[in-house]
Hints:
It is built from 2 helices and 13 strands, in the order H-E-E-E-E-E-E-E-H-E-E-E-E-E-E. The chain starts with a helix and ends with a strand. Helices cover 7% and strands 37% of the residues. Strand 10 (145-150) and strand 11 form a beta hairpin. It is mainly β.
Amino acid sequence: MRLLLLFALLTPGLFAAWKPLFNGKDMTGWKQVGWPGFTVEDGMLKTGGGMGLLYFDPAAFGNATVRLVFKTTSERGNSGVVIRMPEKPKDAWYGVHNGYEVQIDSAGDEWHCTGAIYSISKVTQRNQKPMGEWNTLEIELKGAVTRVKLNGKLVNEYKEGQAVPERKQWYEPIRGPRANTGYIGVQNHDAKSIVFFKEISVNAK
């Protein structure tokens, strides 16, 4: 034990702490825009309603890793984690067009499934667990690079400025550079897409 403590003291940052952004009781620190679909149920955030975005209001994040633990209730459970928003969103679509959406949807193709940066950067592999099981999504923001891990495996890495597909649909994000520091949020998509989050934490670097 003494050796472990000494090692930790001599290597600061090795055991960096995760800071919970969701307290498991209510939505303190979070604000909703668009459809007011989020509720707290049995210590978890639950999506619902129509298109909306619940964002963390107190702070924007630069170099950091965001960790979310979630589960879906159907094969088409649809949500997303919006990152790199340069300003606090005024509506549900602000994050789509001014940040990046890391998708949650097991039924989408490689550009639109869990771990993809929606229609911008496809996954290199699928690693989502079946509906009803908990998944851990980690999104690392490091300068212009975004790395996405799903259940411990790297499934996506995107660097600002790399080639992206042509925008084809109105609901796909407007192409263009995103901020290195920004606000984060979680999406409620539609009434049939119920997704639960039991943890949202950040490890700032």
